[in-house]
User: What shape does this take?
Amino acid sequence: MSTSSPPETGGPTVSAQRVRALFATMCRIRAFEEAAERAAKEGLITGAAHLSIGQEATAAGVCGNLRTSDLITSTHRGHGHTIAKGASADAMMRELFGRAGGTSDGKGGSMHIADFSVGMLGANGIVAAGIPIAAGAAQAKRLLGEDAVVACFFGDGAVNRGPFLEGLNWARIYDLPVLFVCEDNRYAARTRTGAMTGGPGPAARAESLGVPAHPIDGNDVMAVDALAGQLVEEMRAGGGPQFIHAKTYRQKGHTVADPGTWRPAEEIAQFLEHDPMTIARQFLIDAGAGPADLDAIVADAQQEMADAYDSAAAAPWPDDGLAATDVQDIGGPA
Ligand SMILES: Cc1ncc(C[n+]2csc(CCOP(=O)(O)OP(=O)(O)O)c2C)c(N)n1
Ligand SMILES: [Mg+2]
Assistant: This one.
């Protein structure tokens, strides 16, 4: 892996109507993240929050091919995946603010956001921890006789942790329908992953375990959607695990508290030109969409997230009596 130029954008592969819906999801993710960033600056979010600005196309393109009954696992940078899987932005914002009515009644916060009702099994503060969870969830669905697939999002830093090997190996030997999605935003916290990753990178590692790997421009939602659609169909028909190496870029710092100014300015500028929103927008303009129509999609998303912000800020704190509800009780010391 390297910090080379952004990859070329793929050609049109899906209908304009479909891309319009994907663009709307991406706009909602970006507007949510911008509102979360503002909330953190205003002290309404305590603790860390990791924004996925710049990575919207991967979340939208993969989750746009999933059913509600399909499952996803996520990372510490999980807001976009959760929105794309269908969670309510209002409940999510409350969760970030630690308020009543949050997806976990305010107990999980940004890094543990989850919504089982839409098949979102959870963000996760432990790098790579979602990978074996995804394999286990796929095996559970198989044992239940369901044809669900599991999409497993993780970062380029996660491929250097042991659970990557264990999870992919398990999914391969049991032929489990897990779509592994490595969102390669080129950094793990503040370290370039190229500098700490041996060998030719994530796709080669997946292939070495017998999991077919597909490198792709993760900022091109048309390409992600087309590839994910094909792989999900194959997996649902009984095919085993698949791996997408989605090359993208984290436009912001590691957390909301990190301005990210330690990266070369030219690098940031270069990738801002390869912004996933711009790519999808240009596709739609070329397909005949009017700029005003697309601006209205952006404005609707911003209004939805401004409302979610206001609603969360006005929401009460959770009832003290709920503190131990839905929390695993492993018993006290004997
Ligand atoms: C097991 C573990 N080690 C270290 C950390 C500290 N940490 C949090 S995020 C992060 C970087 C992860 O990088 P990557 O997987 O590429 O995800 P990204 O932040 O780029 O989305 C690290 C090292 C952690 N949370 N868990
Ligand atoms: Mg990364």
About this structure: The longest helix spans residues 16-41. Residues 1-12 have pLDDT under 50 and may be disordered. The chain has one domain: 16-312.
